[in-house]
Write a structure and sequence with these properties.
Blueprint: H1 8-18, H2 23-30, H3 34-48, H4 53-62
Helix pairs in contact: 1-3, 2-3, 3-4
Amino acid sequence: MNGAALSAREVEVLRELVSGARSKDISAKLGISERTVKAHLGSIYQKLGVASRAAAVAAAVRLKLV
């Protein structure tokens, strides 16, 4: 996956994740519910082929998505 399949909102969530923000913090900053953040994270994990926050951060850095 090259990152092109991530939506603009997913990229925003991923950037916040890379900065170390918790789901609660991401939801407050982006003005969306924590449940929506978690849905975006699930989609991000699937698209990046990872199973955890740490792996998503590593993939984002490796793929230069952030």
